[in-house]
Backbone:
């Protein structure tokens, strides 16, 4: 670690010299601008936080830095030299390492093998295990206690694995280390260890980029913070004492909460959906629920609380163990999605790409997939004219941005893909609409359109259940909030009684 | 250098050419190939050779129509070659024992259909990979063909049965007519019915299709049942042409059919299946084989050439997919 002494020396000489610089970086995808003219600098030996809502452009920026995306225009400078990353190897060679939420380790291989993957030491052509363990041990001493190089990755906790990733980056001589939401699955002790390591990296002159959703972490660890919104850099704060939580939130959101959600109260009719003791995989006890006509019920909980599983059981996509469902006071035995649709219940799935759209088929086919059965001639032959009419009317009504109805859905932006899925169901005679994370990864403007659509459907007397991990969204859109925790129903809170603190206190696990 | 700029110009300036290439690249390649062969290979462009060529690809063409559906749904079927052999033998035995040609034909088709149904049920309900299922089924059915026939060809005594495979209508042999009719029927099924659209949807994204209310299992079972029936029918036609049911025929036929489809732009990952492309793929394979025969290229080399063509086709498919992403 002779190098590190040299770096400390350098650091004293050139504190806060910009080491990494983004200059007018822009990235577009078909139909969407993901990053627009973003410029900012990261100093040597500093931790630079990036914050913004989902879809604000942080991840795109990280992918450009790691060589996974190539910018549409703009430049990256490292140590004053312009860099051109065509793939992730280019970035690694230039000393950039990105530590993603999903770690890239091989569970069945040992710690030492993972650390030295790709450049394991050899002796006359054979693996030099002794040397390998020595190098690994040297690295581990800095990162972790009580881990031997011979342990398999699968024996380590998530936090420990993350440390191994950091070790990999350091062995690659990475000078820039970017973290993408590193604490999302760490325990509080592991977070402390991570902070300690990040501080040491900083002291050694590394530049650290730190993306997080947790505001308090920004104040815990960052020297500077840059706020992103809708693909643009809003502002960089270099003096952390000059900002507080509210200022950052304001910059992130850019408008008042009421503007985004544009909630409007409405009256609720009779019970449209009545679920009694629904039970199945993912739930830890039977679940009952009623939804009235015109009511929007928001489901909140942590990842793994059982919200998605509940929707899938209700929709017949997963096999239920028990439970009865009534729609408009009629008992319906829903055993498959096709039965659910026939009974007037539809689902917009959580994972748009894997469960929602059929990317290689056209907008037209994606919208017509279910509703075409109403148009069919002799039960099997397509009525193309009616399908086209239906598709075109929804493209117009929902303002789906597509060159034509024949465009492949995979080429549309996330928001427009979500609209396509909604259009799929609006042609059906729906009583209950289930929406799982309907606005994830969608820009704020389109989010607002989707909320308005939800209100319109509710006005028409439909019952809506929506699951979201975005707490302000749940608070802003739902008439009533159901909180789930560890596969159980915890609490039902009316809109007027709800606040971030109340909902979170129900959602968070109880520590004994 | 010059060629590079030229390529770039064509790429950017000619949107029309680009879309033509996207939609019917293989057809253009085939036309070019056809013209070149007509000019340079003697006897290639003669009525006699053209009919011979069409006849030689008629079997692959027929089964390619149903294989297209299997591929479109993201699966494939290796058992068709065994079904062809089994159904031929079955048809021959039934004709010989009952004296009814109709019974023989029906027995061949239903025999194939039942095997396809089993494939479909195992793949859809037991969720076993189509590769393993149909590979196992291929061996089982091949074995059955040998068991039923006693290991040797089953000669057919009733000459009226040979009309199916050997007679001509308007100068064109019956198997070619059958292939054309199948092409029309399955073209309509693919593009004009919910069955076709649902098949493509399943291949494009099986989970999304299921959540959109498509009965995925049922569609898969229909696909494989039709596939088996078609292979059974092809076996009957082949038996008619050869005037006997032969248990050891058609080795490697399944891969020929899949190759032809892929060559025609049918995506191996499912969801994209141009039926005209499949026919062109069948024709490209047949035409190259035909030309190689006319040029007296030894059979050993022909294998190498066919393998290379398939590799190139798959590479093109891969490039197209990368562009899509």
Residues:
């Amino acid at each position: 670690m002779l190098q590190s002494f040299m770096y400390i020396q350098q650091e004293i000489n050139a504190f806060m010299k910009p080491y990494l610089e983004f200059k007018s970086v822009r990235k577009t995808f078909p139909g969407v601008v993901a990053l627009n003219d973003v410029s900012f600098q990261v100093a040597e030996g500093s931790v630079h936080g990036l914050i913004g809502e989902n879809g604000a452009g942080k991840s795109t920026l990280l992918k450009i830095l790691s060589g996974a995306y190539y910018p549409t225009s703009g430049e990256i400078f490292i140590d004053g030299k312009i860099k051109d990353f065509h793939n992730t190897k280019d970035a690694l060679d230039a000393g950039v390492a990105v530590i993603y939420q999903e770690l890239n380790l091989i569970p069945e291989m040992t710690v030492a093998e993972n650390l030295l993957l790709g450049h394991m030491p050899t002796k006359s052509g054979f693996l030099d295990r002794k040397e390998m363990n020595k190098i690994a041990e040297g690295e581990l001493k800095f990162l972790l206690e009580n881990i031997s190089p011979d342990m398999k990755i699968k024996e380590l906790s998530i936090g420990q694995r993350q440390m191994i990733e950091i070790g990999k980056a350091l062995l690659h001589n990475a000078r820039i280390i970017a973290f993408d939401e590193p604490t999302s699955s760490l325990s509080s002790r592991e977070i402390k260890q991570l902070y300690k390591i990040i501080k040491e990296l900083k002291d050694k002159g590394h530049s650290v980029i730190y993306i997080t959703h947790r505001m308090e972490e920004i104040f815990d660890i960052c020297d500077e913070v840059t706020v992103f919104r809708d693909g643009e850099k809003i502002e960089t704060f270099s003096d952390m004492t000059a900002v507080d939580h509210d200022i950052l939130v304001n910059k992130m959101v850019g408008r008042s909460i009421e503007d985004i959600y544009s909630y409007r109260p409405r009256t609720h009719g009779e019970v449209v959906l009545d679920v009694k003791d629904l039970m199945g995989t993912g739930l830890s006890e039977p679940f009952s629920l009623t939804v009235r006509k015109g009511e929007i019920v928001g489901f909140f909980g942590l990842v793994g609380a059982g919200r998605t599983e509940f929707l899938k059981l209700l929709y017949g996509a997963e096999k239920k163990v028990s439970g009865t469902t009534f729609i408009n006071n009629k008992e319906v035995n829903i055993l498959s999605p096709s039965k659910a649709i026939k009974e007037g219940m539809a689902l917009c799935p959580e994972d748009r790409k894997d469960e929602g759209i059929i990317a290689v088929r056209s907008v037209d086919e994606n919208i017509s997939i279910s509703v075409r059965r109403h148009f069919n001639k002799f039960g099997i032959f397509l009525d193309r004219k009616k399908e086209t009419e239906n598709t075109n009317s929804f493209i117009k009504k929902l303002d789906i941005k597509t060159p034509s109805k024949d465009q492949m859905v995979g080429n549309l932006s996330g928001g427009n893909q979500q609209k396509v899925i909604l259009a799929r169901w609006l042609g059906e005679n729906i009583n209950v609409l289930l929406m799982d994370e309907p606005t994830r990864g969608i820009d704020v403007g389109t989010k607002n359109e989707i909320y308005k659509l939800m209100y319109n459907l509710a006005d028409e007397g439909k019952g809506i259940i929506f699951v979201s991990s975005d707490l302000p969204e749940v608070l802003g859109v739902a008439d009533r909030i159901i909180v789930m925790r560890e596969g159980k129903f915890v609490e039902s809170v009316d809109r007027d009684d709800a606040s971030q603190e109340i909902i979170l206190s129900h959602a968070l696990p109880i520590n004994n | 250098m010059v060629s590079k700029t030229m390529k770039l110009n064509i790429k950017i300036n000619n949107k029309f050419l680009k879309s033509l290439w996207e939609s019917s690249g293989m057809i253009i390649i085939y036309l070019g190939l056809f013209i070149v062969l007509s000019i340079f290979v003697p006897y290639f462009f003669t009525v006699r050779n053209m009919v011979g060529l069409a006849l030689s690809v008629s079997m692959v063409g027929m089964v390619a129509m149903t294989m297209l559906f299997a591929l479109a749904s993201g699966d494939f079927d290796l058992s068709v070659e065994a079904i062809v052999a089994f159904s031929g033998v079955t048809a021959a035995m039934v004709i010989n024992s009952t004296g009814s040609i109709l019974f023989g034909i029906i027995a061949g088709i239903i025999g194939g259909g039942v095997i396809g149904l089993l494939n479909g049920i195992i793949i859809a309900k037991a969720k076993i990979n189509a590769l393993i299922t149909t590979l196992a089924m291929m061996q089982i059915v091949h074995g059955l063909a040998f068991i039923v026939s006693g290991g040797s060809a089953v000669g057919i005594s009733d000459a009226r049965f040979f009309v199916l495979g050997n007679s001509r209508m308007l100068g064109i042999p019956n198997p070619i007519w059958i292939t054309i009719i199948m092409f029309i029927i399955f073209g309509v099924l693919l593009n004009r019915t919910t069955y076709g659209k649902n098949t493509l949807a399943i291949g494009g994204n099986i989970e999304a299709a299921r959540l959109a209310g498509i009965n995925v299992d049922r569609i898969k079972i229909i696909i494989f049942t039709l596939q088996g029936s078609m292979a059974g029918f092809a076996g009957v036609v082949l038996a008619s042409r050869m005037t006997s049911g032969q248990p050891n025929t058609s080795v490697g036929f399944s891969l020929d059919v899949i190759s032809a489809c892929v060559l025609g732009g049918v995506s191996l990952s499912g969801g994209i299946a141009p039926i005209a492309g499949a026919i062109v793929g069948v024709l490209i394979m047949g035409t190259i084989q035909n030309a190689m025969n006319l040029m007296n290229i030894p059979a050993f080399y022909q294998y190498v050439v066919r393998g290379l063509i398939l590799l190139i086709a798959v590479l093109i498919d891969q490039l197209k997919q990368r562009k899509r992403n």
User: Anything to note?
Assistant: The longest strand of chain B covers residues 154-155. Chain B touches chain A through 24 residues (CB under 8 Å).
